[in-house]
Write a structure and sequence with these properties.
Elements lengths: L20 E5 L6 H18 L6 H5 L10 H16 L3 H15 L6 H21 L1 H14 L12 H16 L3 E8 L4 E4 L2 E5 L2 E5 L2 E7 L8 E5 L7 E6 L6 E2 L5 E2 L6 H10 L3 E8 L6 E8 L4 E9 L6 H9 L3
Parallel strand pairs: 1-11, 2-8
Antiparallel strand pairs: 2-5, 3-4, 3-6, 6-7, 9-10, 11-12, 12-13
Length: 329
């Protein structure tokens, strides 16, 4: 089959009772109705096939998770978490800061996103130092591993915090650094490591040993790669990101694969999501007979199983419903 070499196959065929089916979009990732069309199809299919059909959140989770709040909303939540901490509600403040940390990382990478992430990590460390001191020190080391020169805003943190920060900085410095080379196709895209903007690709960085999410700004939200920076005595590491692969996958648009006629991202999605059946919906509005196409792939057989198409006509949701009824159990 034409896409056989792109399919990621892991292990032997699954037991029928544990089958997992994922639904994604295969076109028009930038259209707001794409996500709604996939959701409608998925809901219809789940009503027939039950929990074997993964939810949108479960499908998106290994791709980076769904975007649930805007940057402005998370900034307001951060201010509220700080207020809760100063009001003595430490547990509530920590719970909110952990949530904001996770959700902020699901936004499109930008300097503004990093500014909020840096504030969240600094404040989270302060709260943890009060309730779970070792966790707070770990969070400070995490922040300094990404931005060694970090300094808190003058007057916003107490002397005890500044002292802990100095100790964490010494601990991070003692670990040494190693080189991380980042290449992006096409070059010139802005690169983010651990959420922090580090310049344009290609980039060669000195980083503290550890695991970092490496992302590129492809003009929209996409996926990154988790990369390990080894100890100073080991060989340096390198990572490559491509617009036609990582940049073609949007976790929050269905999820969606912006194939554009190239199906290299297919293997990446299958490798990350690890399902037994992958169903891809593609809207074709440019032809004389606009239609909605459903293509099913079987990663265990290295093959495209079937393809079906219905006209993009009738009431909203009708084409998706008709295709869902055609999917065999």
């Amino acid at each position: 089959m034409r896409f056989a070499l792109l399919l990621a196959v892991l292990g032997a065929a699954p037991d029928a009772g544990s089958e997992r089916i994922a639904v994604v979009a295969g076109s028009e990732c930038d259209r707001t109705e794409t996500r709604a069309t996939v959701a409608s199809f998925r809901d219809q299919l789940r009503s027939r096939l039950g929990p074997r059909v993964l939810s949108e959140a479960d499908t998106a989770a290994p791709l980076g998770g769904l975007t649930t709040h805007s940057l402005a909303e998370l900034q307001r939540s951060f201010a509220q978490a700080r207020d809760a901490f100063f009001a003595g509600r430490t547990a509530k403040a920590l719970q909110e800061l952990v949530r904001i940390d996770e959700e902020t990382r699901r936004l499109r990478p930008s300097p503004e996103r990093w500014q909020l992430l840096r504030q969240v990590l600094a404040a989270r460390a302060q709260v943890e130092l009060k309730s779970e001191p070792e966790s707070g020190r770990k969070t400070l080391r995490r922040l300094l591993g990404i931005e060694p020169e970090f300094e808190p805003p003058p007057g916003e943190y107490p002397p005890s915090y500044v002292k802990e920060l100095a100790s964490a900085r010494a601990a991070v410095k003692a670990l040494g650094t190693n080189r991380l080379d980042v290449r992006v196709e096409p070059s010139g895209k802005q690169v983010f490591v651990g959420g922090r903007p580090v310049g344009t690709a290609p980039a060669s960085l000195r980083m503290t040993p550890g695991d970092y999410l490496v992302e590129a700004d492809f003009g929209h939200r996409s996926i990154g790669r988790l990369v390990t920076v080894p100890r100073p005595t080991d060989l340096p590491n390198a990572v490559s990101l491509a617009e036609r692969i990582e940049g073609a996958i949007d976790p929050s648009a269905g999820p969606c694969i912006a194939a554009g006629g190239r199906w290299e991202p297919l293997g990446r999605v299958l490798d990350l999501v690890r399902v037994d059946r992958l169903l891809i919906l593609r809207a074709d509005r440019g032809s004389t007979a606009p239609g909605l196409t459903l293509t099913e792939y079987d990663p265990w057989k290295h093959a495209e199983v079937r393809e079906q198409k219905v006209p993009l006509t009738g009431p909203a949701g009708q084409p998706a419903k008709e295709l869902a009824e055609r999917v065999p159990p």
